[in-house]
Structures are given as C-alpha cells and as structure tokens.
Amino acid sequence: MEVHSTRSSPTVPRRVAVIHGYSASPDDHWFRWLSDQLESTGVPFEVPALPDPRNPDPGAWKDALRRTVGVPDAGTAVVAHSLGCLATLRHLKTLEETEELKGRSGSWRLGSLILVAGFIDRLPALPELDDFIGVGEDVTGLADHIDRTVVLRSDDDPLVPPALTDRLAVQLGVRARVVPGGGHFLSSDGFRTFPGVLGVLGGVPGAPDGSDDADG
C-alpha cells in the first residue's frame, strides 16, 4: 500500500526518539530491537521509560516528552506507539501554542514523525485511559511543522479501532499505511522486531526500504 507523507524524500535523522505506550517499557515489544538497530548504525537515540506506564498521568508524560524530544529540528525523528502517539502529539501541540503566544510561529520543525497504532480519541476497549485521553487533542496546524509523517495501523487491532487511526492520519494530512494482521503491534502479535519502522525512518545506514513492507 502506498505511503502518503508530507514530504517524499526523508533526510538522514541526526537523532531518534522512541516513545512507548500504555503498560509498556523500553524493553517491550519491538522497542529494544529498534534501539539495538539504531545503536549499531551510530544514530543517536533515546527511548525514555515514561513514568508509571500502567497508570499514566498526562502531566508526567508531558514532562517526559519535553525532556526527551524538546524542541526538535529537521534532523529529529520521533517513533511513537499507541498512547505514546497521543503524548507526542500533545508535546508538539504545546510547542506550536507557545510559538503562537510569542509570535514566532513556524520556527520549529520535525524531520520525521512515525506513528504506530496512533489515536487521539477515547478507546472503547480501554476505558481506564479515558482520564488520560480526555477530549483528545486538536492536531490542527502540526503538519505545517513536520517534514514527513507516516502513520501505520493494522486491519485487526483489538485495542485501537482502525477508523480512529485513519481519522488521526487524515487530520495530519496523510493516509494510514495498513499492515495486514498486525494486531496492536505487540510482542504477543509477533512484533519483537519491526524492520518496516526502521525502513520508513529513511536514510538510516543499513535500514531496509520501507516503501512497500512494514511487517514485523
């Protein structure tokens, strides 16, 4: 399936942040594998352990994203999974709102944003996250700051309805890429590795071409 992104030619990332989701850690699912791949290629990366992932607090996660992602530039790539996508988008929206208040709109950029099983709406399967999700997030305007956005979803995610990921993708100005049978991209779904994510990062030495295959 064709990948639709805000730019067609990704640049080599100078740093990568990998943001895990609910009830996860940097060692879970495909995150450790991706860390190992980035380390072997010499690309600087950070995979923060977000606080209390089984009972996440929006403010605490926001602080963690501020420390990890900070103010990105065209050499920054962020890979986020599930609830980590919402946390990442909230951080980026805060940057946009701060710039508007200071009259400096357009001064930050993000080279690549890769969202896996992302959403901004409440999830029927996970009502315990309702307080964290709240009314969701208005992502209007974020696409203007991001050089390349790739959204990945499966066709059988039991936790995040595919329609919600599609809705997020449309709001970011792209079309979601579908990985058949990917579930929620957990280790229990067979995703202890995820070459497709490395591929769509683009420009990472030794990365596979992610244009056609995002399977784990």
| Helical segment count | 6
Q: Measured on Cα atoms, how large is the radius of gyration? A: 16 Å
Just give the CATH class: Alpha Beta
Question: In CATH, what is the homologous superfamily?
Answer: Alpha/Beta hydrolase fold, catalytic domain
Sum up the overall morphology in one term: globular
Q: Structural class of the secondary elements? A: alpha/beta
Q: Supply the CATH architecture.
A: 3-Layer(aba) Sandwich
Beta-strand level of the residues, as a percent range?
Answer: 5-15%
The low-confidence runs, each spanning 5 or more residues with pLDDT under 50, are 1-9
In whole angstroms, the N-to-C terminal distance is 16 Å
GO molecular function: hydrolase activity
EC number: 3.-.-.-
Protein name: Hydrolase YdeN
Pfam families: Ser_hydrolase
